[in-house]
Specification:
By secondary structure, the protein is an alpha/beta fold. The protein contains 8 helices and 17 strands. It has one domain: Ribonuclease Z/Hydroxyacylglutathione hydrolase-like (Metallo-beta-lactamase, Chain A).
């Protein structure tokens, strides 16, 4: 009863907050802009259309997912883990390194003195409340207090498993000063209200294809097929996207969340030489209608090939039970997809939680 009443109270408050929204960044000349928010560049895949549900059936399913402990999706074997070499990470300024902290959270050391954190979520649940919602199966490989100083945080979109108020507040108070927070349109406003206390000097807002430069690194927000929401009533009021981080001699692609779309070919056209390293989502693809939001491992390998990535790391698995597949199903399906598409394991692999991909090869310290 307590859970139900709390959810009803939360929903009522969010309903009031979501009413009569107007997009403050609306530009009629941009096809993905809407007066009330944003839209994808391309239509959804009809093969992945969600089956129709009645009101009661739909909300029963949502509440079941939120209150479930995820036991039916537990891995068949323990999720592999590795202990990061913290001394190395604090000293490293010359070697590109990608450390998987869990889910979509990576520490990316660019090899040119910049520490970038992607979608930092260190909480026990990916949820607006502490007692319900997707519960973390695997603890973060690195605690917030153990991180080297973070120079830049890149945020892909507003979903709770990618945008955490508590984690961002802690990072904003880090020793040595706050990081630069790079965010899609609209997420910047959320950051100003919920993280920085009204201060905007450390926030950079980006539309699709917009760029910002930080210490010789170019960070560009890329269009991908997804959506945004932090409640049932603010859907697509803020933008979403992936990222390209480039510097002379090295390039990195971070997919964020995405369903497969022609956006990938658009990105490939802008980056014809491809990417040296990528983090691409491979989890939360079952049932099939999830795939307009999250690519399957087969589609992830296709993205790897179409973007001409030298080395890709699979993410968005093994941490939060976001889909209906088991937490360790994605790596098994990734192996099948690699074989079917002729991609070597060393070119698209999964890391243990805490594992590190160094430069153009993968190893665990």
């Amino acid at each position: 009863m307590r859970l139900l009443s709390s959810l009803v109270f939360l929903a009522a408050g969010l309903l009031v907050a979501g009413c009569a929204h107007q997009n403050p960044y609306y530009d009629a000349a941009r096809p993905h802009h809407r007066p009330e928010g944003f839209a994808n560049n391309y239509p959804p895949n009809p093969a992945y259309r969600r089956p129709p549900q009645g009101f009661v059936e739909g909300w029963t399913s949502r509440i079941r997912n939120w209150t479930s402990d995820g036991s039916e999706r537990l891995p068949l074997a323990p999720i592999p883990t590795a202990k990061p070499d913290l001394a190395y990470l604090h000293a490293n300024g010359s070697e590109p390194a990608l450390i998987w902290i869990g889910h979509a959270t990576f520490l990316f050391q660019t090899g040119a003195g910049l520490n970038i954190l992607t979608d930092p979520v260190f909480e026990e649940r990916a949820s607006p409340v502490s007692f319900a919602g997707p519960k973390r199966h695997q603890p973060p490989a690195i605690a917030l207090a153990e991180l080297p100083r973070i120079d830049v945080v890149v945020l892909s979109h507003s979903h709770y498993d990618h945008l955490s108020q508590d984690s961002l507040r802690a990072l904003y108070r880090q020793k040595g000063g706050p990081p630069l927070l790079v965010a899609p349109l609209g997420v910047d406003i959320w950051l100003e209200k919920n993280v920085t206390g009204g201060e905007r000097s450390r926030i950079v807002k980006l539309d699709w294809w917009d760029k910002t430069t930080v210490q010789g690194h170019e960070i560009q927000l890329l269009p991908v097929f997804h959506w945004s929401a932090r409640s049932p009533w603010d859907r697509n009021q803020t933008l979403w996207g992936g990222y390209a981080v480039t510097r002379p001699g090295f390039s990195f692609f971070f997919s964020g969340d995405l369903g497969y779309s022609r956006d990938i070919l658009d990105i490939a056209a802008r980056y014809p030489e491809g990417f040296d390293l990528a983090a691409i989502g491979i989890g939360a693809y079952q049932p099939v209608w999830y795939r307009n939001s999250h690519v399957s491992p087969d589609e992830a390998v296709r993205i790897h090939r179409e973007l001409k990535v030298k080395r890709s790391v699979g993410m968005h698995w093994g941490t939060f039970p976001m889909g209906q597949e088991r937490l360790d199903q994605a790596p098994r399906d990734l192996a099948i997809a690699r074989a079917a598409q002729g991609v070597k394991e060393e070119d698209f692999f999964v890391l243990p939680v805490g594992g590190t991909a160094f430069g153009k090869a993968a190893r665990v310290p």
